[in-house]
């Protein structure tokens, strides 16, 4: 799954990695991004609107539901294209969530040891997401997850769907709506690029947010 991540790369680096026209901006480094907060995402507000980087609420609840409807933070790749709850957003409202890495917890001797997972080259990771206007009129998103691959499987059975560089543009294309076509042109990041190491249990408390959280311990 994906329930906590870090984003500290500066805006120019993210813009360059996307190879897409984005206006200059500033991002506050965050080392402990938790669900139920505003997070950075990239997408098209509508089919004909230009690509923008902005904030969305990490919690998906479509506008056609009510305040008592589920608010998942993740959507599985196995069901996102067919579930009544997600399929409209998968077809028309896909987005990318930039991250420098994510956290996962490994059970060890009856306790859970957090690990930080990132690219070996420390480049930003682009997580596939979907978004929808929420009942309150604001955008909310869920990050897609897939079965864990490579060393990520040592920590947890699932991982966020990280995309390779060539998949970023088609994933964001609002005119690309067919499920099978999307599956053919969008590919996940090669598993061999991912590494991990144990970090402090301070990350368990979302109020802790500093660079020491990602240091080896």
UniProtKB/TrEMBL annotation:
The keyword Transmembrane helix does not apply. One of its GO terms (molecular function) is lyase activity. The keyword Protease applies. Keywords: Covalent protein-DNA linkage, DNA damage, DNA-binding, Hydrolase, Lyase, Protease. Belongs to the SOS response-associated peptidase family. InterPro entries: SRAP, SRAP-like. It comes from the Bacteria. One of its GO terms (biological process) is protein-DNA covalent cross-linking repair. Its EC number is 3.4.-.-. This is Abasic site processing protein.
